[in-house]
Specification:
two-stranded antiparallel ribbon, mainly alpha, 6 strands, two-stranded antiparallel sheet
């Protein structure tokens, strides 16, 4: 065989005709491969020959024919034979390379030089065979991978099949092949092919070999070998275009190649110090049209393409930043393209360039180079700032991530620190949750890596800035230039460090010759130079601005705490935690608002809150841990000054702490120590207020811990509490209330361990109620807590309650005449409050006792069933029989319910009840004619007592409902009292729904109250009742809909939330709003308090909840029927507006066409006609199918026809315009009724077959043809309406 010529296609080896420029296969052995054993035998023989014979044997025709035929039938060859053959080929290639290297190193006149042609031919054969094997194996591996993925996706629980020993693994074998070929690249092909240049076919084969292997290989060593092959081929043998095109093709086809290609380019630069190949690849990537990248971005089946290119740009910027910055100008035009993936990749690459490409070298740099470098850096920074407003949220996210990367690497110039902070805080309001998430992460990163200090207190920065600015003013006074020149002032120029600019900036230091005296730094107390003082002032200014920006972002973070996106809430909690650690102003207040999230239904949010509170107050964070004493102090500080809502949230948080073991008995002990310490400090006058505040906070935390940590209130602790609260802090309402709550939560108070303190506890609780130690204004809340504790701890609380009522009644009424010497109003108010609260406590005690009895009976029955071994089925059968006979558990439940009802009636109705006479007094007081003029406190207490008595007894409820509603409508009654009455109505609706049902309309009336607080309370109460199915909606919900346009934003927001939640309560796929809309429309359209704009706004907010086409179509039909039931133009407009807001399908358009007779009279009104034309435009715009377009045209024809007729009848169109309209209308008519029948009877066919006549037509008036009117006709009708307007 002569010198081998590499064919363009391996199939050319089997051509029939002989050609001098092509090597052919002489003996085709494929027919001999009758079975697997035969081809294995041939493969083994040729493998042995390659290993044991001269590497030049591959040029023998017989051996070449066998090799070519085996590779042709590669898919038949088993795995072991493949491995054996490939090992033989790679060994022979390496051996041949060593021989050729020896020949090339020999003298030119040696005998070995004569063999160079044979070696070159063998080299071509080996490269060709290796490339062929790589091509076949890569295709086979990809096909196998795709099939395996499809099978694994459809297989349940199927893991990967374990590879058998000797099986073919192309990823592993391709590494061997690349390694052997890379060793061959050490040969100088210029010498091998001398005097000609290296064969292009060989170079192309090398490129194809590498790319085929890289399509599957992921090993780093194999990638390095492939980079060596491609790098030498492109750089040494002048194949830059082919190699760069091959690399770009790899990027476009395979997802795993970006990092590989970037690594190969880095290897080529580091190995040969030549960046031409990397530059060529970047140029190839940049030369692709942006439209093509956009197509790849939008293509659903493309796995690589622009995504891989974007990843490659990022990876290359990491590895070759200095080279990449010289080529970035080629990629920047793609920032204007529509492929957001590429834009994001370029942005990320810019971040790597800013972090690493502009590092100055140790050597001296020319001034021009410095300026060029700084200008390039400034340009890239400007691009990052601009791209924060990119239209794609993914690109905006990439920009924020890039700034975060720069902050972590300390690569943000100090002058840009405030700019980046403004970007981060501004993006908190971004519409995308992804961007908001990255904005919060960026803010946290800026704080963690800030150059100003470990904390960022704004007040300290401002104070330090004022001091050093004053120093700088004395050292460098600012004097006007004209005045300075007149006074003979000299000017001294200095060049301070400027962190913002790329060029040195000259500042002038003026030395006074006249009135102004310049001091030296030492004279003003500064140890450094003037330039250092200037730099410090500039840094303090930036630090203050940075802290001020973070402080200004606190409201946005608080808003994000209420976001419906879980990630927003979690990230804002984490950021607030960081802000608190860096002492940002406003962070503690924001964290207090975060406490309410402890009640979130999302467990992730709840866990995040607990974790944040643990770090802030209990455990601490890295490098800043808390001891138990510090944790106790932190909890007390958090409780001090907290609102009721915050205290409730803190209580839930303490429960979570106890469940997770974060708060222990040691912490509780420290809390008691704090309480003792602060209570003793109260005797010191200057510490009294601060000590009292901390005692309140400590008792609040202890009262929360009682229920979750039993040892909190052991008997010894109870004795200490009595001393601290009821002796040292006697008379303080908040401390006493917290103590009463803590005592009421003690479990097993009847235990013997409490014998020594039991009577003291009872005495203290009673004294709180009957003594005058507590101020009158806050006595009520303390008394409520005391009564709760008494009813929880005392074995006979009714006896103690009667005694307290008698005592207070004697104080108020004993020895007093009602007319001449009336009792003080504050004492009467206390009596009324005590009567209502005790009656309510009685009711709660009865309910609790009944539950206890029922639970005890069920436990006894369950234990008996378990002891007897009766199966559950038998128990169920016995229960059914007992229910029919009226015995057993069912009878016991009925008897228990009867006893409970009787006990509840005896609270007020029993003849010996202490409540009964006082209940009459309360009722008579509220009914007295002078009640309206009484003091507000007395009225509030009396009405509160009355409502509590109504909750307790149904007879009192029924007999006083009219009084309650009368007082609620009386504007003389204070708004706060009216709000309390609304809340009481909610309790009554839950307790006695049948008694409240006749008064349902009156329950809704507070929604129209002139006071905002009353309306807000009414909205909240009604929302609770309706959404919890405790009150039927009926026909009064229109009043709640009207609140959507309430003058107060809070009331409107509550109304919007109500309808949003109501829309979720679907029943059988139907929203309640769908059923209520017609009635609400009727009521709201007649409501004179609503303007037209307000009505439309209300209906828009309601109709947005109609999302199903079938509901929209049904409402269209219902609303069309309402046109005929009214002659009021305002009603027509309202109905038409509602139809315009509904989703309309083809069925809905048919309903509009079929109901044309109902709304044709309404088209006389110009505004209604305009709305109907808007509906026409909406229907035509949404029509995409031919049938839909035909229906839209039919609907448009009818609307325009009726509008034109009304204009003609009313004489609102001049003769010329009307003639034009008639001419156009005549072009769209049909003359017989057959057309009407063919069109589905849309013209109003009657049951007897006659065509329905419009009152606007005579019998000979032609009907409108179902075709689209021309633009001239529409313009004529609309112009005529504009003339009338």
């Amino acid at each position: 065989m002569g010198e081998f010529v590499i064919p363009n296609d391996p199939a050319d080896l089997w051509l029939d005709e002989r050609r001098d420029d092509l090597t052919l296969v002489v003996s085709d052995h494929s027919l001999d491969f009758t079975d697997e054993n035969t081809i294995v035998q041939y493969s083994e023989e040729i493998s042995y020959a390659l290993c044991g014979d001269n590497p030049l044997c591959v040029c023998e025709q017989s051996k070449f024919d066998v090799l070519a035929t085996i590779i042709k039938e590669w898919h038949v060859l088993p795995g072991k034979a493949r491995v054996q053959l490939l090992d033989a080929l790679t060994t022979s290639i390496v051996c041949l390379s060593a021989w050729m290297d020896g020949v090339l190193s020999s003298p030119d006149d040696s005998e070995d030089r004569s063999l160079l042609g044979e070696y070159r031919s063998a080299y071509k054969v080996y490269i060709f065979l290796a490339q062929w094997i790589a091509k076949v194996s890569s295709r086979e591996a990809m096909a196998t991978s795709m099939n395996a993925s499809a099978l694994e996706a459809g297989k349940k629980g199927g893991g990967r099949r374990k590879k058998k020993d000797g099986d073919w693994d192309w990823q592993e074998q391709s590494g061997k092949l690349l390694k052997s070929v890379a060793r061959c690249m050490a040969l100088d092909l210029w010498k091998v092919f001398r005097p000609a240049r290296p064969d292009d076919a060989v170079l192309v084969s090398l490129i194809q070999l590498s790319t085929n292997c890289l399509s599957c290989v992921k090993d780093a060593e194999a990638v390095r070998h492939a980079g060596q092959i491609l790098g030498l081929t492109g750089l040494r043998y002048q194949q830059l275009d082919a190699v760069s095109a091959a690399m770009v093709d790899l990027l476009n086809q395979y997802e795993h190649t970006p990092a590989m290609v970037a690594e190969m380019l880095r290897y080529s630069v580091s190995e040969w110090d030549d960046g031409r190949l990397a530059a060529a690849v970047i140029q190839e990537v940049a030369s692709i049209d942006a439209v093509e990248y956009e197509r790849q971005q939008n293509a659903t089946g493309e796995k690589a393409g622009v995504r891989s290119v974007a990843a490659f740009v990022d990876e290359l910027a990491k590895r070759l930043p200095k080279l990449m910055v010289t080529q970035m100008s080629l990629l920047l035009p793609h920032l204007g393209g529509k492929a957001w993936t590429l834009r994001s990749g370029i942005i990320t690459a810019i971040g790597h360039l800013l972090a690493r490409a502009f590092e100055t070298s140790d050597g001296k740099e020319e001034q021009d180079a410095v300026i060029a470098r700084l200008r390039t850096k400034q340009h890239l920074l400007d691009i990052l700032c601009e791209r924060t407003r990119d239209q794609s949220s993914y690109t905006r996210k990439a920009v924020l991530q890039t700034w975060q990367y720069l902050a972590e690497n300390r690569a943000i110039p100090l002058g840009h620190w405030q700019v980046v902070t403004s970007i981060a805080t501004g993006r908190l309001e971004d519409k995308s949750s992804l961007v908001r998430k990255e904005a919060m992460r960026l803010m946290g990163c800026l704080m963690l890596h800030n150059p100003f200090g470990p904390s960022l207190p704004l007040d300290k920065f401002v104070a330090s800035l004022d001091i050093h600015s004053a120093m700088l003013e004395q050292v460098m006074p600012q004097v006007d230039m004209p005045a300075a020149q007149e006074n003979g002032e000299a000017t001294v120029k200095s060049e301070p460090v400027d962190h913002d600019s790329s060029e040195p900036v000259e500042t002038e230091r003026r030395v006074s010759m006249g009135a102004v005296t310049v001091k030296t730094p030492a004279e003003v107390g500064w140890d450094g130079t003037v330039e250092e003082l200037q730099a410090l002032v500039a840094s303090l200014e930036l630090a203050a601005e940075f802290s001020r920006s973070l402080t200004a972002s606190m409201p946005s973070l608080v808003n994000l705490l209420a976001s419906s996106t879980v990630s927003d809430v979690q990230d804002s909690i984490a950021l607030l935690l960081t802000c608190k650690q860096f002492e940002i102003v406003g962070a503690p207040e924001a964290i207090r608002k975060m406490l309410a999230l402890i009640f979130s239904r999302e467990q992730n949010i709840k866990d995040k809150v607990v974790e944040a509170l643990d770090q802030l107050y209990l455990s601490g964070w890295a490098g800043h841990s808390y001891t138990s004493a510090q944790a106790a102090k932190n909890l007390v500080e958090l409780a001090c000054g907290a609102t009721l809502g915050e205290l409730g949230s803190l209580e839930e948080a303490i429960k979570c702490f106890a469940e997770k073991g974060l708060i222990t008995s040691v912490t509780v002990h420290e809390l008691w120590e704090l309480a003792n310490q602060h209570s003793r400090d109260m005797h010191v006058p200057e510490h009294r207020l601060d000590a009292l505040k901390h005692v309140r906070g400590t008792m609040a935390v202890l009262s929360m811990a009682v229920g979750v940590i039993p040892e909190t209130m052991a008997s010894s602790r109870v004795h200490g509490l009595l001393q601290i609260v009821f002796e040292r802090c006697r008379g303080d309402a908040l401390t006493t209330r917290h103590a009463c709550v803590a005592l009421g939560r003690i479990e097993n108070f009847a235990d013997e361990s409490y014998n020594s303190v039991r009577e003291d506890v009872y005495t203290a609780l009673v004294r709180v109620v009957i003594s005058s130690e507590i101020p009158d204004a806050v006595w009520y809340t303390v008394t409520e807590a005391s009564l709760r504790a008494l009813y929880s701890l005392h074995p006979k609380p009714e006896d103690v309650s009667c005694a307290m009522i008698h005592t207070l009644a004697e104080q108020a009424f004993a020895g007093r005449d009602q007319d001449d010497n009336p009792p003080p109003s504050y004492l009467t108010s206390k009596v009324f409050f005590l009567i209502g609260e005790i009656s309510l406590r009685h009711l709660v005690l009865i309910e609790k006792s009944a539950k206890y009895v029922r639970r005890a009976r069920l436990d006894a029955e369950r234990k008996a069933a378990e002891a007897s071994g009766n199966p559950s089925k038998r128990n169920a059968e016995e229960e059914d029989i007992n229910a029919e006979l009226g015995v057993g558990g069912v009878a016991a439940d009925a008897e228990l319910d009867n006893m409970k009802d009787a006990a509840e009636r005896q609270i007020v109705q029993f003849s010996n009840s202490i409540i009964k006479p006082f209940a009459k007094m309360v009722i008579n007081t509220c009914r007295h004619q002078s009640f309206h003029t009484a003091e507000p406190t007395l009225k509030s207490s009396a009405l509160l007592a009355l409502t509590k008595l109504m909750v307790v007894d149904v007879k009192i409820c029924e007999s006083n409902l009219q009084l309650l509603f009368t007082l609620l409508q009386n504007r003389v009654v204070e708004p706060k009292i009216r709000s309390n009455l609304v809340i009481a109505l909610g309790d009554l609706a839950l307790r006695f729904p049948n008694a409240l049902e006749p008064w349902t309309e009156h329950v809704y009336r507070p929604l129209g109250d002139p006071d905002t607080g009353v309306r807000k309370t009414a909205m909240m109460v009604l929302t609770h009742l309706i959404l919890n199915d405790m009150m039927k909606v009926k026909g009064h919900i229109a009043k709640m809909a009207a609140c959507l346009e309430d003058s107060d934003e809070r009331v409107a927001a509550l109304a919007s939330l109500f309808f949003h939640e109501l829309a979720k309560k679907e029943y059988k796929g139907t929203s309640p709003i769908y059923n209520l809309l017609p009635d609400m429309l009727s009521v709201l359209s007649r409501d004179t308090s609503l303007t037209n704009a307000q009505f439309q706004s209300v209906m828009q907010q309601l109709l947005v909840h109609i999302k199903k086409d079938k509901h929209g179509d049904a409402l269209v039909e219902k609303l069309c029927q309402r046109f005929a039931s009214t002659e009021d133009a305002l009603q027509w407009r309202n109905i038409a507006f509602c139809i315009s807001q509904l989703p309309t399908s083809d069925k809905g358009v048919k309903k509009l066409i079929e109901g044309h007779s109902a709304y044709k009279n309404a088209l006389e009104d110009d505004e209604t006609a305009q709305i109907m034309l808007a509906i026409v435009a909406k229907v035509k715009k949404s029509a995409s199918k031919p049938d839909s377009k035909e229906l839209a045209d039919d609907f448009e024809s009818k609307v325009l026809h009726y509008i034109a007729e009304w204009k003609e009848i009313n004489g609102e169109v001049d003769g010329e315009t009307m003639d034009s309209v008639e001419e156009k209308m005549n072009d769209l008519t049909v003359d017989d009724t057959n057309k009407e029948n063919a069109d589905g009877g849309l013209s109003g066919k009657q049951p007897n077959g006659a065509v329905g006549e419009s009152p606007l037509h005579s019998k000979n008036t032609p009907m409108i043809k179902e075709e689209e009117p021309s633009d001239d006709l529409i313009a004529a009708v609309q112009n005529s309406m504009d003339v009338v307007d």
